[in-house]
Design a protein that fits this description.
Length: about 850
């Protein structure tokens, strides 16, 4: 707390007026020794204490009244971000004035009076020091903004800003406040506008001074469908301010204060932000205006779409799960979930009422008959307070076939010891086995019931294409790019060139499954490194253990790896019947952060261990997948086990059409080139086959995509994925020079996935803002006026003289009431005049009364008794 007119505080000296009056007009009584008054001393002492208390209260009110009037005239000011508590100023001044008045009343007891006078002086000195310190601190912090400055206005463009409060969205309020701040800036200031979403977006090309251009930019802004990443937005704003020429820098952010995107737990990001801001000539102050979130919200959202398999083929159906969550504060009504695949009619499911925070997963089944990208849409029918999260999209890239290379390590003259042959049969089973697997996988039909007609249909052709090769012939394979997964089944060792090629294959996204048996050489696998020290396998082969008499089983509940979902489902799987007679003792590499154990044997030793290497995965099993070491090939779970492992390993090589904001999306368009794609002539010939490639964003804006010749056509890419939602590549073929005809446009969808937590309107707490202030100079503005004042270089806050005037009026009324009460009570205790009658007594009346007393029976009886 400080004062805008501190000189008027000299009027506090007026507190001495009632004190001097009291001291000058004190009653000076004379002492008269009158023996009859000794009986009244106790009564007079009590009366004196009562009068002293009345005088203390009256003096305190009068001194407080003068102090309140003086402080109100000095225009007390409370800064919005006060560094000195206000209780150290105003209450201290009032307390000092009251103590001074009480000391005057207690003048008779000099030691008490001097204590009160000294206390009053200390309180007034403390109040003065606190007010002066506050003034200097605020002046040092804010006066730099009075010069010409570069201002970055950051507007929260997250989905939650589309929530309505009192009939208007917070985004509209944010734009309106930004417009008010722009209008308040002097002509010498330069302003840039940043739209903060999952990725920040510069709405202006650096700080500009043209106010009309800035207003046009503000009118064109639209909220995105994702969360706001605040550290990235502030770093982006700092980079924009670095382009300005003015010495002073400031950042003003308008947000709804939702905690998602602040990422306060990640101190490294905030330290990096602090270092970025410190690199500017003058570290900018961040002025944060937090708009109120709605108190009540009716919002249900489609939080996620997932599939039962990572790799989807055209051979059989796949389960599609849509996760629905009630992110609001009130229970939902009955929800209708619609699932649409491409342009097919939607399939619906109903969900009963969901309580706040409750989730439910709706399951569908669909058979993708054609390979290629397919768009899956899950949508909630109806509207709520946040319609932006009522739909979710996923692009499913359906494969026509999945090539797998099986390397058999057992000698060719010992077919019963080989595991690769069993794997080949399991990966490409006969028609009956594949039909049975398809029926188990599909579950309920898409229309909600079983479909006997579909079950009677012949199974589709095999999706996985396994190729079997003996380990002795593996040296002939120098390029593994024709495959998606390589399986080493009981292979002793690999040639050096083959081992290096296989490492490159994994690092580029390929999958490697190692199933060691009797023929595996630990010296080779334990020294197979990716770099100088990092091992390729996630675990070392310690020793092979043979337990033919006391076989071990599988600890099915420990099989938590994503590829072991169907294998570990005890309601449908017979994995609990597995009998392992020989296994390798695996020692997982504890140094590798990308290593995890996905399942264990019955004796708690690892059964499956995984490592992430580059873009691909390496899996190693402790059991060779042949009949000699276990009965796994004879169990029904063996087929889904190999299928899930293979498809899990093949997933990284799939084109990624569901990305996070900021990631690049790339795809190959299979146009047939006229020549070799590598030379310029071929590129020119290919250019005649394709005109241009644009991207339609979720905001229906068209952006150009990059196009380059690839091995089998055109490689298209797009990196401007800052807004979550559904995008589409629009491929426009070039007009044929011979016929003048243009082929039909092709579209290729891809999705930028939003943050599910954005649907929950969770506000920031005070401790969150304090945590942010530890890294940056953050000021929280309570009103639009505070933002304008802080940006302009003044001290944001508000005057409180009206409140002091109101307190003075109340004190005045209290003083008048107390003075009137004292007057009335003291008049009541004044001694009244006593009338004793005439000076000469009436003797006749006295004689008659005495005679009547003597004649009474009681008096006569007493007379006789005396006789």
């Amino acid at each position: 707390m400080t004062f805008l007119n501190p000189a008027i505080l000299l009027a506090l000296a007026g507190v001495a007026i009632p004190i001097l009056i009291h001291l000058l007009y004190r009653r000076r009584a004379r002492s008269i020794n009158w023996g009859a008054m000794r009986f009244l001393l106790d009564s007079l002492a009590a009366r004196r204490r009562h009068i002293l208390l009345e005088e203390i209260l009256l003096m305190a009110l009068r001194c407080a009244l003068i102090a309140l009037v003086a402080m109100a005239a000095a225009r007390p000011f409370l800064p919005a971000d006060s560094r000195i508590p206000w209780v150290a100023v105003a209450p201290a001044v009032l307390a000092g004035a009251v103590c001074a008045g009480m000391g005057a009343v207690m003048w008779a007891k000099r030691w008490v009076a001097w204590i009160l006078f000294n206390l009053a002086a200390v309180l007034l000195i403390v109040a003065g020091i606190a007010a002066l310190t506050e003034h200097l601190v605020q002046k040092d912090r804010w006066t730099s903004g009075a010069r010409a400055k570069d201002l970055a206005i950051v507007i929260d463009g997250s989905m939650s800003m589309s929530a309505e409060v009192d009939g208007r969205t917070n985004f509209a309020r944010a734009v309106e406040e930004a417009r008010a701040v722009v209008d308040s800036c002097p002509p010498g200031d330069s302003i840039c506008v940043v739209l903060a979403g999952p990725l920040p977006f510069a709405a202006t090309t650096g700080p500009v001074s043209d106010r009309a251009e800035i207003h046009r930019v503000l009118d064109s802004l639209r909220a995105t469908n994702g969360a706001m990443a605040l550290p990235e937005a502030l770093s982006f704003a700092a980079s924009a301010l670095a382009q300005g020429q003015n010495p002073a820098k400031k950042i003003a952010i308008v947000t709804d204060g939702q905690s998602v995107g602040w990422d306060l737990e990640n101190e490294a990001r905030w330290r990096f932000l602090a270092s970025t801001l410190a690199q500017l000539p003058a570290p900018p102050q961040v002025i944060c205006r937090i708009l109120p979130l709605p108190e009540s919200c009716d919002n249900c959202a489609v939080a996620d779409i997932s599939l039962s398999r990572q790799v989807v083929g055209a051979d059989r159906a796949v389960k599609i799960m849509a996760k629905v969550v009630n992110a609001g504060t009130v229970p939902s009504k009955t929800l209708v979930v619609q699932l649409t695949v491409d342009d097919r009619p939607p399939v619906t499911r109903q969900i009963r009422q969901l309580g706040p925070g409750a989730t439910e997963t709706v399951q569908f089944s669909h058979h993708f008959r054609e390979p290629g990208p397919h768009l899956v849409t899950a949508q909630l029918a109806g509207l709520d307070d946040l319609p932006g999260d009522n739909a979710a999209w996923r692009v499913v890239d359906v494969l026509d076939e999945l090539p797998v290379l099986l390397v058999e390590g057992a000698p060719s003259d010992r077919p019963l010891e080989g595991a690769a042959s069993f794997m080949q049969i399991a990966l490409a089973p006969g028609q009956a086995a594949l039909g049975e697997l398809q029926q188990d996988e599909e579950g309920p039909a898409a229309d909600g019931g079983d479909s006997p007609a579909r079950a009677r249909q012949p199974a589709a052709r095999a999706f996985i294409k396994p190729a079997l090769v003996q380990a002795s012939e593996i040296s002939r394979v120098t390029d593994f790019s024709a495959y998606r997964v390589v399986v080493l089944a009981n292979v002793r060792r690999l040639p050096d060139e083959t081992a290096r090629a296989l490492k490159r294959f994994v690092r580029e996204g390929g999958g490697l499954l190692v199933a060691p048996g009797d023929w595996a050489a630990p010296a080779f696998y334990n020294n197979w490194t990716v770099g100088e020290t990092e091992l390729l396998l996630p675990a070392s082969l310690v020793e092979q253990v043979h337990t033919p008499d006391e076989p071990v089983g599988l600890l099915v509940p420990s099989c938590t790896h994503p590829a072991l979902g169907l294998f570990a489902d005890q309601t449908q799987s017979d994995a609990a019947s597995a009998v392992v007679r020989a296994y390798w003792h695996l020692a997982p590499d504890d140094r590798g952060p990308a290593v995890r154990v996905g399942g264990s044997l019955g004796n708690s030793l690892p059964f499956l261990v995984e490592r992430r290497v580059g873009k691909g995965y390496v899996l190693v099993t402790s059991v060779s997948l042949g009949r000699r070491d276990s009965n796994l090939p004879t169990l029904k779970c063996f087929v889904p086990l190999l299928h899930e492992l293979t498809q899990y390993l093949a997933a990284p090589l799939l084109p990624e059409f569901n990305v996070t904001p900021g990631a690049q999306v790339a795809a190959d368009v299979p146009f047939e080139p006229a020549g070799n794609p590598g030379d310029k002539d071929a590129a020119g010939a290919m250019g005649k086959r394709i005109g241009q490639v644009d991207v339609v964003t979720p905001s229906d804006l068209r952006r150009p995509a990059s196009v380059s010749p690839g091995p089998s056509g055109w490689h298209i890419a797009f990196a401007g994925t800052r807004e979550p939602g559904l995008y589409r590549f629009v491929i426009v073929p070039e007009t044929d020079a011979d016929t003048g005809e243009q082929a039909e446009e092709r579209t290729l969808p891809f999705v930028v996935v939003r943050e599910p937590e954005e649907s929950f309107l969770t506000p920031l707490g005070e401790e969150d803002l304090l945590a942010a202030q530890e890294h940056i100079d953050l000021f929280r503005a309570q009103t639009t006026g505070d933002v304008i004042e802080a940006v302009a270089g003044g001290v944001p806050g508000h005057e409180i003289w009206k409140k002091l005037v109101l307190c003075a009026v109340l004190v005045l009324l209290a003083e008048m009431a107390l003075a009137r009460w004292i007057t009335v009570t003291r008049r009541t205790h004044t001694a009244e005049e006593v009338q004793f009658g005439q000076d000469t007594p009436d003797h006749e009346i006295l004689r008659s009364r005495l005679r009547s007393l003597v004649e009474t029976p009681e008096m006569q009886g007493s007379t006789e008794a005396r006789r």
